[in-house]
Amino acid sequence: MNPLLLLLLPFWLLILQFVVCNSIYLNYTEALSKSILFFEGQRSGYIPSNQRITWRGNSALGDGPGFFSDLRGGYYNGGDNVKSTYTMAFTTTMLAWSVIEFGEMMPKEELRNTLVAIRWSADYLPEDMDMNRTVYKLQAIDPASEVAGEVAAALAATSIAFRSFDPYYSDSLLKAASGAFDYADLYHGSYSETVLIKYGVCPYYCAFDGYQASIYSHTHTHTHTHTHTYKRMVTHWQDELIWGAAWLSKASKDERYMEYIQKNGDTLAANENINEFGWDKKHAGINVLLSKEVLERKAYGLDSYKTSADNFICTLIPESSSSSHIAYTPGGLIYREGEKNLQHSTSITFLLLVYAKYLKQSSGSINCGSVRVGPAKLRVMAKRQVDYILGKNPKGMSYMVGYGRKYPQRIHHRGSFIPSIKDHPQVIKCKEGSIYFNSSNPNPNILIGAVVGGPQKDDEYEDDRTDISKSEPTTYINAPFVGALAFFAAKPIHHN
């Protein structure tokens, strides 16, 4: 063989890999449909007759009696049959926000399916397992401002999403949202610091954003019993309170919520340029959401939120003069160290599209030093993230289960890797599932539409269910992705 050809061969192989990677056809409408279908696989409680993921059966039917409550229903957050109100509420907020911003772009059938998915968790907020189902209860003596604030946001956002479809339901949600917010604001404290709760939720669902805590003593008297003194970690209100107030302001048009934001925003430092958005950090989402009020000149005293939103966007642009940039993998995926990286990519992608919408409506753009950024640039950036997740990446792999020719086969999800009761009627006790967990076989039950935690910072991904951070899907990864897919299903754009 010609020596020159040998030297050129690696170069041509690289070109070929690039062409194959970028020639993958992406059907955003199909991906949208599957991303919504995923939530049926996360359902807990009694499964309705029109369930489309048929291997999922009734489960956790005994949740709540010990607290004289019916806690059946809602969603499992990930693959381990845990129902966390905090993450479930964030999931609900993001699904509702997707409908608010992009619902008109959705095919009617998928809009209906999304509303059904939202209602399943919103109703819960106001598999047959032989394990104990421990319930943790929040009350005045053990408050949880971040959880209650997120519940308020979820119910308020959902009330907006349902306003034109079910006005009575919308009104009832708004009333419940107001009550949740009042509770969050009246009893300040983090549930991660509540002794009865933190050992059950930490380290998986701790509020790591936390409170800037100070200690104070409080004397509490039990009626007809005794008096005792306890100490609690409490200080300023957190981002979830501003987040909840912002959604209640948007849903109710009650001026007291906007006044609350204007009065308490600096104390909460919610408009800080924190370049993260997810179930535990709402700062970037708050800044984008409240920027709409600034751009439309509907409220005063909120300019700092718009400035922080602009700064957040600039951190996403490598060529900008931002002092702190968000990292990307060599293949172009937004990357942050920690658990389940794709939660960052999907949530930030959603914010890019929402902010692009707000900027276009106001004919605005962002100054990132020497770079001027408009709506079109933000949409191209968002599309690159969506395309990467769906298969245009160095692995040529879709990170959505059941989408494309190559996708994860061994996800970390009990309902997916343990045989369905329909195929295996004999009881599989909790510890007896280990044989399936440790198996190298593909999961027998395909959780269509599930987006897994995703690849590591070098774009590598091992299809291994024991690697939880990479192989576990969660509702809070999928929820913002629904909105992004709704946009591109309606308005596909091409890379520049």
UniProtKB/TrEMBL annotation:
Q: What InterPro entries does this protein's entry cite?
A: 6-hairpin_glycosidase_sf, 6hp_glycosidase-like_sf, Glyco_hydro_9, Glyco_hydro_9_His_AS
Could you tell me which PROSITE patterns the record lists for this protein? GH9_2 (PS00592)
Keyword set, alphabetical order: Carbohydrate metabolism, Cellulose degradation, Glycosidase, Hydrolase, Polysaccharide degradation, Signal
One annotated GO molecular function is: cellulase activity
What catalytic activity does the UniProt entry give for this protein? Endohydrolysis of (1->4)-beta-D-glucosidic linkages in cellulose, lichenin and cereal beta-D-glucans
**What Enzyme Commission number does this protein have?**
3.2.1.4
Q: Where is the signal peptide?
A: 1-21
UniProt cross-references to Pfam families, sorted A to Z: Glyco_hydro_9
Active site per UniProt:
412
Domain Glycoside hydrolase family, first and last residues per copy: 28-125, 126-485
Asked if the record carries the keyword Hydrolase, the reply is: yes
GO term, biological process aspect, one:
cellulose catabolic process
Check the record and name the SUPFAM superfamilies matching this protein. Six-hairpin glycosidases (SSF48208)
**Family of the protein in this entry:** Belongs to the glycosyl hydrolase 9 (cellulase E) family.
Record protein name field? Endoglucanase
The organism encoding this protein is Cynara cardunculus var. scolymus (Globe artichoke)
Task: State the taxonomy lineage.
Answer: Eukaryota, Viridiplantae, Streptophyta, Embryophyta, Tracheophyta
